[in-house]
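Regression check, pyridoxal-5'-phosphate case 366:
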Amino acid sequence: MNDRQHPSIGLEVSSLPTPSLVVDLDAFEANCSVLAGHMARRGLDWRPHIKAHKSPLLAQKMVEAGAIGVTCAKVGEAEVMAAGGIDQILIANQPSTEQAWLRLAELQESAWAAATIDSPEHLELAKVASHSAGQSIPLLIEVDIGMSRAGVRSTEDAVVLAEKIVASGLPFAGVMGYEGHLLTISSTDEKSRAINEAVSRVVKAAEAIRDSGIDVDIVSCGGTGSFEITSAIDGVTEIQAGGGCLMDRFYREMCGVDLANALFAVAAVGSRPTEREAILDAGWKALPDKIMKPICVDINRSEVSQLYAEHMRLDLPDGSDPQIGDRLKFIPGYSDATTVLHNEFLGVRDGVVVDVIPLAARGALQ
Ligand SMILES: Cc1ncc(COP(=O)(O)O)c(C=O)c1O
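Current build output:
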């Protein structure tokens, strides 16, 4: 950021090198305020997932808006966030190797960085790593609430594991579940019913652990596609919704989320083989069609009809005639799959690049 030497600083979107990934900073900050305000009104903490933007600078904007810290998927991401000044980090995942646990133990020197576990084997790894680093890794228990991914499968297992964590001497911080399999239910009533049923499983696990005499500070759930429903459920203490600060077609059209589009890819017309087709210089290596196709915001009723590795074919409606070299803006189908292909965001205000924002945790997969 603030790299005044970067050749894109000061350029308008219409003259950017392409393909580029652009974040409208006003829209991003507005989305952060909406999410932070929503959680504050419901008396909840906001711990946004950073998997979509992977940037400590954008994470700092979330914290400035009111987030208590961030959620990450990997220890490597947590290391990058901590190095960028974020000091409250939840790894909503189970580190699986002794190296990852050791790094997480060492990370405690610079941040409160917790991981979620679902078995005594993880606890053993956490103990060994904590002991050799002279640190204590805070632990949460992940509860499977229907996604059939990781997580203990019963309340009883959650209680037994919580007791083992407490007996180990490592800090037990709470429970987590993610209702990611329920985001795209189209009926609002059915979505609400299903999410309430799923999230009640993690809330019940927390209550059963408390009944066994153990404090449960954190009950962490919720993503962008579910935060409005999940944040109204009694017993939840924090929400992990993060990708909505960038937004994409998936969140808006499949999850019914109404936040501002802050993320755009910019591509240039490279060829006009026929009147009704434009070939652009961004293919699936820059702007993939994972979950949904990208959509062009500059030409109504145009349609991305094919993505090649380095080219896109855009079918043009009557009356549109983009010229070779014209830059067109696209909303990605799915932000996570798009951002990960780029080294940096160009931060834009009023259509002009004001910042270059590295995706510093891109590739931090371990
Ligand atoms: C554990 C966990 N929490 C939260 C989320 C939601 O993240 P986002 O709000 O970026 O969609 C996800 C998405 O995959 C997740 O895996």
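Comparison notes: The chain has a mean pLDDT of 97. Residues 188-211 form the longest helix (24 residues). No diff flagged against the previous build.
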